[in-house]
Design goal:
heterodimer; A: mainly beta; 7-stranded mixed sheet; 4-stranded antiparallel sheet; B: mainly beta; 6-stranded mixed sheet; 11 strands
């Protein structure tokens, strides 16, 4: 158990819908990361927050947004969903920013039908 | 785009044998981390090695890093069926993200 908690574990939704994925980082970790894993793209970095502020942005679509709240949990919002958004979405956390071990949650499986 | 590239893409061995996986990367790094993923499950952190380190051990795992060749290797000794998984290297640079390779699928046959 990495200590990173993600909900929901599985989600099936229709195209055009919006979903929210939730993440609680390990106790004491200030950085939260979101990754997307798909068969064709592999593991892709989406976005990182540190202590409530956005720190780095990767291949995140404009239809996707994220935030980190004062209690350090984070949410990833995916809207206007398309079939191609079906993937495993990981949240990860670390104590600081670069140079720290990054621990991953079990992921949220999103299936768009 | 992937920074780390693992080699081989797939590896099949017998229980008790050693497994070696390699990772090559393109740009300078601050650290390199190895992860394991069982099918459809989360990523389990194995080892972090910093750019000023050459070798690290953790149980049956040994990781080496050669920054001059921009490569790293993960050795699993005395493999077990439970080691069957995909193994990823991830490079961390001066920015804040990890960049993953496509992984090596290791199958350990009992």
């Amino acid at each position: 158990d990495s200590g990173v908690t993600q909900t929901p574990k599985h989600l099936i939704t229709a195209t055009g819908q919006r979903v929210t994925l939730r993440c609680s980082p390990r106790s004491g970790d200030l950085s939260v990361y979101w990754y997307q894993q798909s068969l064709d793209q592999g593991l892709q970095f989406l976005i990182q927050y540190y202590n409530g502020e956005e720190r780095a942005k990767g291949n995140i679509l404009e239809r996707f947004s994220a935030q980190q709240f004062p209690d350090l949990h984070s949410e990833l919002n995916l809207s206007s969903l398309e079939l191609g958004d079906s993937a495993l979405y990981f949240c990860a956390s670390s104590l600081g920013t670069s140079g720290n071990t990054i621990y991953f949650g079990e992921g949220s499986w999103l299936t768009v039908v | 785009s992937q920074q780390g590239e693992e080699d081989p893409q797939a590896l099949s061995i017998q229980e008790g044998e050693n497994a070696t996986m390699n990772c090559s990367y393109k740009t300078s790094i601050n650290n390199l981390q190895w992860y394991r993923q069982n099918s459809g499950r989360g990523l389990v952190h194995l080892i972090l090695i910093r750019s000023n380190e050459r070798e690290k051990h953790s149980g049956r795992l040994r990781v080496t890093l050669d920054t001059s060749k921009k490569s790293s290797s993960l050795l699993i000794t005395a493999s077990r069926a439970a080691d069957t998984a995909s193994y990823f290297c991830a490079t961390g640079g001066s920015n804040y993200k990890l960049t993953f390779g496509k992984g090596t699928l290791l199958t350990v046959n009992p």
